[in-house]
Amino acid sequence: MANHKDFQGSGPLKGLRVVELGMLFAGPLIATNLADMGAEVIKIEHPKGDVVRGLGRGDNSLWWSVVARNKKLVGVDVKKPEGADVVRRLLATADVFIENFRPGRVKEWGLDYDTLRAVNPGLVMIHVSGYGQTGPYSERPGVGTLAEAFSGYAHVTGEADGPPTLPSFPLADGVAALTGTYAVLAALWARDRNGGIGDEIDISLYEPLLSMTGPMLINYTKGGVVSNREGNRARWSTPRNTYKTKDNRWIAVSSAADSPAMRLFRAIGREELTTDPSWATNRERLKRVDECDGMIAEWMLAHTQAEVMERLNQFDVLAAPVNDIEGILQDPHVLQRGTVVTVADPVIGDTQVQEVVPRFRNAPGRVNWLGKHEVGTETRDFLIEAGYSDDEIQALHHRGVVKAS
Length: 405
Known about the structure:
- With 405 residues, this protein is of the alpha/beta class.
- Helices cover 36% and strands 14% of the residues.
- The protein has two domains: 17-211 and 344-403, Crotonobetainyl-coa:carnitine coa-transferase, domain 1 (Rossmann fold); 240-329, formyl-coa transferase, domain 3 (2-Layer Sandwich), CATH 3.30.1540.10.
- The strands form three sheets. It has a seven-stranded mixed β-sheet with strand order 6-5-4-1-2-3-12, sandwiched between helices. It has a three-stranded antiparallel β-sheet with strand order 7-8-9, covered by helices on one side. Strands 10-11 form a two-stranded antiparallel ribbon.
- The longest helix has 21 residues, at 171-191.
């Protein structure tokens, strides 16, 4: 395990050093998760700037503010041999190395696991790619949108008579990042118990998302059922849907279990159904799903969203408003719990962002800063630590190998 000085940060991972060599979202989001929990993350970006800096409208990418938060920036052109050598020297003191280029690319730069572990046997290296490091599709370009299609997620999302539906945000990247985060932590746990030897982790974008589709696979292999789009219903439960209210808003209900369903029936004035055997169980209710949805939808449409929620909460019904972002920021629970915090930024000013997830009582993480606006803000510091002299750093800077302010 690498020995480090006490780096800035707070949280349960304070003292862990992570090097991130990634682009767009999945790999960088693993690093963001680790940074939020206190790890020191060194983000390697091209001296001309990461591609995420150019996403969105205006001069400042808000995506960059999110994905690069809590990270220290080193500007290096890793495609140049001298740049790859810089990264290798940084990795000599790292605990974790995250990369999400096409399989084989880092090996071309001499940054493959076998090369690196010869110098740093405790290193945990994680690869994130569209289709994984093996298989006939491994060399194909892969992004989250393709994974959302390939995994089956888009096929089962949307209305029954509508097209396959993609999410409006990088869902596959986020799910892969969560999977990658716990994979890194599992590898670090194992390292502490097997003599300090690290590991190499392979994550595709499509497999974590496929794993989130519940019984879709087993429904086919054991029952021959091909899952299709069903809107907001679920093949296995009812009532479960979104319902429009009088004021043109929406309510989500999920009351598949029998006792919550009975509470819902009482709330909408259908007390008689609670003693009717033909409505008593989920299996029975599934036989009359259209009737069930219809009576709930009719009742919802006669009341405003606020009135519906007040009534349903009185009866302890499993329901929630369908919020837009404005509704989230105005919600009293969100405000009281501190789901959103304000972080100062020297360029875009005070900015509301989501608080770190999850929350730790004894060693809480925090958002120390948003994505820094200048490329290579910490290049010089880390190169000096890696043994480069001022003259060497200046020469690398002039040749475009690094960006050192």
